[in-house]
Design goal:
148 residues; 47% helix
Length: 148
């Protein structure tokens, strides 16, 4: 899977995670798949998200790992009775993750993963190919007034 067990410990204590997983370890794997599917649903139209989710270890995008963790932990804790309130940090982080995914989908943020339009499947380095990342210029010439 894209998420590793050690990733969770950056956002939640080991004891809290173990307490939430009293039912089974398979529950965590199912929730991870759900979180990856939810994140993919926002990004798959513009980005090579399947290749990103195939990465492991330090090759992964740290921001995308954090976003996927927030989604996974929210779904994990919503399965527990009475654990999520409007002021709960899990709900707030989940809503922030969804806002970020929407802004990436709408091209307001750059997720740092290769886009579908990128000719290099591993992504193009902006330092080596700046022309790939320059914005498009648009406009018109000044209006001419020719009077004789």
């Amino acid at each position: 899977m894209y998420l590793e067990r050690e990733d969770y410990y950056s956002l939640i204590s080991r004891e809290d995670l173990e307490a939430a997983l009293l039912q089974s370890e398979a529950q965590l794997e199912r929730i991870e798949r759900m979180a990856c599917d939810e994140v993919s649903s926002y990004l798959r139209r513009k980005y090579r998200i399947a290749s990103e989710f195939a990465r492991t270890g330090d090759d992964r995008n740290d921001n995308l790992v954090r976003i996927t963790l927030d989604v996974a932990l929210y779904h994990l804790f919503t399965a527990l009775p009475g654990r999520i309130t409007d002021e709960d940090v899990r709900r707030i982080r989940y809503l922030d993750a969804i806002k970020w995914l929407v802004s990436v989908r709408d091209s307001d943020n750059d997720p740092g993963i290769p886009s579908l339009s990128d000719p290099n499947p591993d992504g193009t380095d902006p330092e080596q190919n700046p022309e790939m990342f320059q914005s498009v210029r648009w406009g018109s010439m000044p209006r001419n007034e020719n009077t004789y």
